[in-house]
Amino acid sequence: MIQFLDQNFSQLNHFLTKDTYSRIFILVDENTHENCLPILLGNLETSTEIEILEIEAGEEMKNIQTAIHLWEILTEMHADRKALIVNLGGGVVTDMGGFVAATYKRGISFINVPTTLLAMCDASIGGKTGIDLMHYKNMVGTFSLPEHIFVYPSFLSTLPSDQLLSGFAEMLKHGLIADKNHWNSLTQISDLDAENIIPHVKRSMEIKQNVVDKDFHEENIRKTLNFGHTIGHSLESLFLEDNTPILHGEAVALGMICETYLSKLENLISEEQSETIIKGIRSKFSTIDISKYSNEAIVAILVNDKKNSNSNINFSLLHCIGAAVFNHQCQTENIVKSLNYYRNLCNN
Ligand code: NAD
Ligand code: ZN
Questions:
Q1: Which of 278, 300, 283, 273 is nearest to 344 (CA)?
Q2: What is the mean pLDDT of residues 157-173?
Q3: Strand, coil or helix: what is 107?
Q4: pLDDT tens digit string along 210-260?
Q5: Whose atoms come closest to the Cα of 139: which ligand?
Q6: How far apart are CA 67 and CA 55, in angstroms?
Q7: Is the domain 2-158 a CATH 3.40.50.1970 member?
Q8: What ligand has the least distance to the C-alpha of 27?
Q9: Half-sphere exposure of 278 toward its Cβ, with a 13 Å CA cutoff?
């Protein structure tokens, strides 16, 4: 299902000739319109009519208004049930385009052509589509798989470096939960640029795909992908509420440090491994000042998190580099200790 594209995009062209689609709608945002669409169109060989759908860039656009706008355009353009949506973009485009495709006329086909590192290694895989509602992320959506994922890593050459770093956090996570060799290769990269990261994209995608294949609906092992995301999401929300958003990857890096330390406090991982991991993450991500948020405020969000039941706080934690546990319930006392540990790192 995942295919890497050659210079001529021949795998994609082959796919488009095999399946007969009535029309092709390429969804882009303003940045992928400028940087990626010319490359895609320059290589596409198809007799099927192509239309371009453009949305503004940014997470703020991942909402119901944009979805309505896209449903309306598809309707006005008489898109039928044999139309294909091609999501050419980052996670916002793949989540939004997947959702619109999954719901328009009760579902039309879509493919993902991810253009950010985060979308390649994470968002394009696994069939979660959706939009944000009020200030809650991904509140409304579906589990709907793309027909195919076509990856052209060279798209990363125009991606801003902070966005590259954001996706890199998810790659580190994949190594930590499933593959020590992957973690080792990633932490050995000295300059985090597209050229040095591209050789590792394939392995990271495989890890996510393998996990999703075992547990599509996130009833068990898929939860391990939430490592770093419980505390990470909580801080991400607090910074967002203050209109000082941090990158998702920065939040995940912060969350992975706290949750690694928490794994040690819960006697799941050795002190030595814990230190190695935290050192590895810190060599790529600088610590973030979280002093304006109290432990109570952070924990309050964790308790409300949709992943928790009966007010127990569920975590996905680590046994060692390459092996994770899920549904591990932690006491607030240890969560607070892990947050205080992070606060101390910022002071040193
Ligand atoms: P994004 O889609 O907003 O892209 C980040 C920025 O990079 C945007 O400004 C975009 O226009 C720009 N951009 C994209 N490709 C580019 C390129 N090749 N060159 C230059 N600029 C480019 O953000 P993202 O980080 O890719 O994705 C975040 C979204 O993904 C969030 O909404 C998150 O909820 C979602 N997500 C979904 C899943 C899932 O399983 N469905 C998993 C993780 C994240
Ligand atoms: Zn994430």
A1: 278
A2: 98
A3: coil
A4: 999 999 999 999 999 999 999 999 999 999 889 899 999 999 999 999 999
A5: 1
A6: 10
A7: yes
A8: 1
A9: 22
Structure tokens at 298: 């952070």
In angstroms, what CA-CA distances link 104 with 50, 56, 96, 101, 137? 18, 20, 12, 5, 21
**Structure-token pair, residue 148:** 């195919």
Rounded to whole angstroms, the Cα distance separating 265 from 85 reads: 47
Q: Which residue has the higher pLDDT, 348 or 256?
A: 256
The Cα angle at residue 310 between residues 306 and 315, in degrees rounded to 5:
55
Distance CA 202, CA 27 (A): 24
Mean pLDDT score of the chain: 95
> How far apart (Å, rounded) are the C-alpha atoms in residues 182 and 171?
8
Radius of gyration of the chain (CA): 20
Q: Which atom of ligand 1 is nearest to the CA of 117?
A: 26
d(CA 257, CA 279): 9
What are the C-alpha distances in Å from 219 to residues 225, 285, 287?
12, 31, 32
Residue spans of the domains in the chain: they are 2-158, 162-188+216-346
Q: Which CATH architecture has domain 162-188+216-346?
A: Up-down Bundle (1.20)
- From 26, 36, 116, mutation site for ligand 1 pocket: most ligand atoms within 8 A of C-beta: 116
Asked if residues 182 and 223 have their Cβ atoms less than 8 Å apart, the reply is no
| pLDDT band (50, 70, 90) for residue 145 | very high
DSSP sequence for 265-281:
HTTSS-HHHHHHHHHHH
Ligand 1 centre distance from Cα of residue 92 (Å):
5
Pocket around ligand 1 at a 6 A CB cut-off: 29, 31-32, 35-36, 57-59, 62, 89-93, 95, 115-116, 118-119, 122-123, 126, 128, 137-138, 155, 158-159, 163, 166
Residue length of the chain: 348
Taking a C-beta distance cutoff of 8 angstroms, is the pair 168, 198 a contact? no
Provide CB contacts within 8 A for 38, sequence distance 6+: none
Q: Can you give the pLDDT at residue 309?
A: 52
Classified as helix, coil or strand, 329 is strand
Q: Which ligand is nearest to the CA of 129?
A: 1
